UniProtKB/TrEMBL annotation:
Pfam families: CRS1_YhbY (PF01985). Keywords: RNA-binding. It comes from Acinetobacter beijerinckii CIP 110307. PANTHER family: RNA-BINDING PROTEIN YHBY (PTHR40065:SF3). InterPro entries: RNA-binding_CRM, RNA-binding_domain, RNA-binding_YhbY, YhbY-like_sf. GO terms for molecular function: RNA binding. Residues 2-98 form the CRM domain. This is CRM domain-containing protein. It comes from the Bacteria.
């Protein structure tokens, strides 16, 4: 997957600002179920927020790297315990895609 341009990242961050985390990674860490749920959310919504529990910054960074690798998504933005992930859906769902729902934000 080609890297996102600065303009695309900015647009995705604008949309991401309005989102709430849909996947929470707790003390269990990155399990098979968490990866499945993240993939499902990415397929449905294309752009999602993931919240990672824990105080260790390096451990959170490792979890982010692992989830990006496991899902094939791209990390758009990391702020504290929240990461914004983007993965283009093979077939965009007009009703669920955050890119469609919040398209008006990028037209400002």
């Amino acid at each position: 997957m080609p890297a996102l341009s600065i303009h695309e990242r900015k647009r995705l961050r604008q949309i991401g600002h309005a989102l709430n985390p849909v996947v929470m990674i707790g003390s269990q860490g990155l399990t098979e179920n968490v990866i499945e749920e993240t993939n499902r959310a990415l397929n449905d919504h294309e752009l999602i927020k993931v919240k990672i529990a824990g105080e260790d910054r390096d451990a959170r960074a490792a979890v982010i790297d692992s989830i990006v690798e496991a899902t094939g998504a791209e990390s758009v933005q990391k702020i504290g315990k929240i990461v914004l992930l983007y993965k283009k859906a093979a077939k965009q769902n007009q009703n669920l895609s955050n890119l469609v729902r919040f398209a008006h934000l990028s037209n400002k």
